[in-house]
Design a protein that fits this description.
Shape of chain A: elongated
Strand content of chain A: 5-15%
Number of strands of chain A: 5
Distance between the termini of chain A: 42 Å
Order of helices and strands of chain B: HHHHHHHHHEEHHHHHH
Strand content of chain B: under 5%
Largest interface: A-B, 109 and 115 residues
Helix content of chain B: over 70%
Distance between the termini of chain B: 42 Å
Number of domains of chain B: 1
Oligomer: heterodimer
Number of helices of chain B: 15
Structural class of chain B: mainly alpha
Number of helices of chain A: 15
Radius of gyration of chain A: 30 Å
Shape of chain B: globular
Strand order of the largest sheet of chain A: 2-1-3-5-4
Largest sheet of chain A: 5 strands, mixed
Radius of gyration of chain B: 21 Å
Helix content of chain A: 40-55%
Chain lengths: 336, 372
């Protein structure tokens, strides 16, 4: 989880992660906890659950099979829930074990996935369905369902993904600029010597499992830098575009540390790439045309795509880039 | 229009493969009366369990993607033929009793189907450009674009010289590349982000429904005495399971953080992680509940396939293993059925084997090169 580390929180790490995991949806845990405790108390006090009596499937019923079951039905499920919670509490959610082991396995940032093991949502839904289902009259049942749903919607916010839905403009579900940008880059790149050379080399290699083939297969495609807003969608649409930044490098540059990976000023690979992006957007005035050219050559970057209104165009042209064109609100520059 | 038709064909083809595989499994188990949805649900796990084994073999031996696609085409074709041959009587029986079974569901099934339809429409419309989606879909597009399996970095397109344990051992993304390779003209991004998303959401609902059926069995006990039979056998379990699915849907709608299952279901349904939390985990819970209630004859066989499919989905399959142990081991201890430890270990074998290989690769004991 972003920003939550064992180093900072120590033994409280699991609790802080659980709070972050649930956020304002804590009532789901409350329903699960309350239901479990209530059913446990009922079982321990010897009162059998007032389970609905309507049906037993005649075809499935085998005399003697169910009578010998060691525990009443609902109680066996409750015991299963309890065993999962206790087991998890002793192992993967044991603060002492977590503090010692989770960093060693490199799971600090993905620790939240252990909460998936707890049947919080399914348990809560089961208790709610049992409660609503136990009402005999259908009208009252419907009213109870509406009331429960209404209360839950009132106390808990909507799933953050729901408000973000928009009708896609194309069947690929990517920004409409991506297909035209990729086409424009390919069209320009196929005129270059680099492409011709890579294609000729590839034609001469028959062993597709060799390193050499892999090298020229990659070189056959243009190496580009795209704006952050569309970069991660580019290769989903077109694998014929190579990207200078890998996932972690780009996320880190944009200030996202959710991966838990950091790149310091001594990381030459990162610093070279950072220099290019800084220059593209004019973010760092200390980057000189010479330093920019050095970074472009060292990384073999060929194309830069920048939002038309944000492009540091004068600097890029002065540094050896030429404008390929303005497409769908983005300016494409070719280096060299 | 052509792409949309191909997408529809891909949806039908994949669902048919899952249904046929499930029918074969049911036949092998000696079950003749089953619902089509249950068969498709079982077939889904079996398919991805088998796909993982085949794809991993092709990946390590550096075979091209098209060879994998050819092998899978033969496998799918065989599954369809076997499924049709072995299951058509059951299918006809199931279709004939559809109206009767819908009557047993009653009104709650309408709400459940509305919830499913809303989820399907949502995942069809939703799109973003997140880094994780770039990785999952990029893996498939890169595989198809280069006709290789896992030899190029999906986020950059650069060659990789060694397979990375974290990504190379979980082959789910390559299924999308295989389908696009078989249905020429269907872009991988459409298969992955639209077709597979829809299938995964349907499977998630089926998993939750199966869990609901186990949580609300048709018999209800009061202590040691079983209550007698009502006039409409099967109605109680179905109605309550429908209501349970709707309640899970509501809680997923109100899951307010990016870590909870709800966000994975609605916005990341094409990712393997989402399948772990929304398909595999409810399936394991359903199996565990049926074991605690002793209602299923051979639950470990189903658990094995869920485990195998989980390895295919994501490295987070370790969560499925942990849940299986946490939910089933106490039962074995409490009831003293120690012999079940062996079958639990066998069912967990896919994830345990994956874990061992992962560990060996991470620590350099095994080096898997992407070239010869």
């Amino acid at each position: 989880m972003a920003g939550i580390t064992i180093k900072e929180y120590g033994l409280a790490f699991v609790w802080v992660c659980l709070k972050e995991y649930l956020g304002r949806s804590w009532p789901i845990l409350a329903i699960f906890g309350a239901g479990t405790v209530a059913c446990l108390l009922l079982a321990m006090l010897g009162r059998k659950e007032d389970a609905p009596l309507e049906v037993v499937d005649a075809r499935d019923y085998t005399p003697g099979k169910y009578e010998d079951a060691p525990m009443p039905d609902a109680t066996s499920v409750i015991w299963m829930f309890v065993s999962i919670v206790v087991f998890a509490g002793l192992t993967v959610m044991n603060p002492f074990l977590v503090r010692a082991l989770i960093p060693k396995f490199g799971m600090t940032t993905v620790y939240y996935r252990f909460f998936w093991i707890l049947p919080i949502t399914f348990g809560a839904a089961w208790f709610l369905a049992r409660g609503i289902g136990s009402i005999r009259k259908k009208l009252l049942q419907a009213l109870a369902f509406a009331a429960v749903t209404g209360i839950l919607a009132f106390v808990m916010p909507l799933n953050p993904g729901i408000p973000n839905v928009t009708v896609p403009t194309n069947v690929y579900k990517v920004d409409g600029a991506i297909p035209v940008l990729c086409d424009a880059i390919h069209k320009d790149y196929e005129q270059t010597e680099t492409y011709q050379k890579a294609t000729a080399k590839l034609a001469g290699i028959t062993d597709r499992s060799s390193r050499k083939w892999m090298k020229w297969e990659a070189r056959q495609h243009p190496l580009c830098v795209f704006p952050y807003g569309i970069e991660f969608a580019v290769r989903q649409y077109d694998p014929g575009i190579r990207l200078l930044f890998n996932r972690n490098l780009r996320l880190y540059y944009e200030g996202n540390t959710s991966t838990g990976i950091t790149y310091g000023s001594k990381n030459k690979r990162y610093m070279l790439r950072k220099r290019i992006l800084d220059a593209m957007y004019g973010r760092d005035p200390s980057v000189t045309p010479k330093a920019f050219r050095k970074a472009m050559k060292a990384t073999k970057t060929q194309y830069l795509v920048v939002e038309e209104n944000l492009a540091n165009g004068g600097f890029l042209v002065q540094s050896g880039c030429s404008q390929v064109g303005i497409v769908a609100g983005y300016t494409i520059f070719r280096f060299g | 229009m052509k792409i949309m038709l191909l997408a529809a064909a891909a949806l039908v083809l994949q669902m048919l493969v899952f249904l046929c595989l499930g029918s074969v499994v049911m036949k092998v188990r000696g079950e003749d009366k089953y619902s089509l949805s249950h068969a498709a649900w079982i077939g889904y796990f079996v398919y991805f369990g088998v796909f993982e084994a085949i794809c991993l073999g092709c990946e390590i031996t550096l075979l091209p993607l098209r060879t994998l696609a050819l092998i899978m085409a033969i496998f799918m074709g065989g599954a369809i033929l076997l499924g049709l041959f072995s299951g058509y009587r059951s299918w006809i029986g199931s279709m004939n009793s559809l109206r009767y079974r819908l009557n047993l569901h009653g009104i709650p099934v309408i709400f459940m189907l509305l919830a499913l339809a809303a989820s399907v429409v949502f995942v069809l419309l939703y799109y973003d450009a997140s880094a994780d989606s770039g990785w999952y879909v990029g893996t498939a597009t890169t595989a198809l674009g280069t006709n290789t399996i896992g030899r190029f970095d999906p986020s950059t397109g650069e060659r990789i010289l060694r397979f990375q344990a974290r990504y190379a051992l979980n082959c789910f993304p390559y299924h999308n590349a295989v389908v696009s390779s078989l249905l020429r003209g269907l872009p991988v991004i459409v298969q992955a982000r639209s077709v597979m998303s829809v299938i995964n959401v349907i499977m998630s609902f089926l998993s939750v429904y199966e869990l609901g059926r186990c949580l609300f069995p048709d018999y209800e006990e009061r202590g040691r005495k079983v209550r007698s039979i009502a006039s409409r056998p099967g109605a109680y379990s179905r109605k309550r399971a429908d209501l349970f699915v709707v309640m899970v849907f509501v809680l997923n709608l109100l899951s307010s953080t990016i870590y909870m299952p709800g966000i994975f279901l609605f916005t990341r349904s094409f990712e393997g992680k989402s399948l772990i939390v929304n398909v595999a985990i409810p399936a394991v819970l359903a199996i565990a509940v049926s074991m605690w209630r002793e209602t299923e004859q051979a639950p470990m066989r189903s658990l094995f396939w869920v485990m195998a499919a989980s390895v295919c989905f994501s490295a987070s399959s370790i969560m499925v293993l942990a849940l299986s142990i946490m939910s089933i081991l106490p039962l074995i201890v409490v009831r003293g059925k120690w012999i079940r430890l062996l079958s639990l270990a066998a069912a967990c074998a896919p994830v345990l084997a994956w874990g061992a290989v992962y560990y060996l690769i991470q620590h350099g004991a095994i080096i898997l090169r992407t070239w010869r």
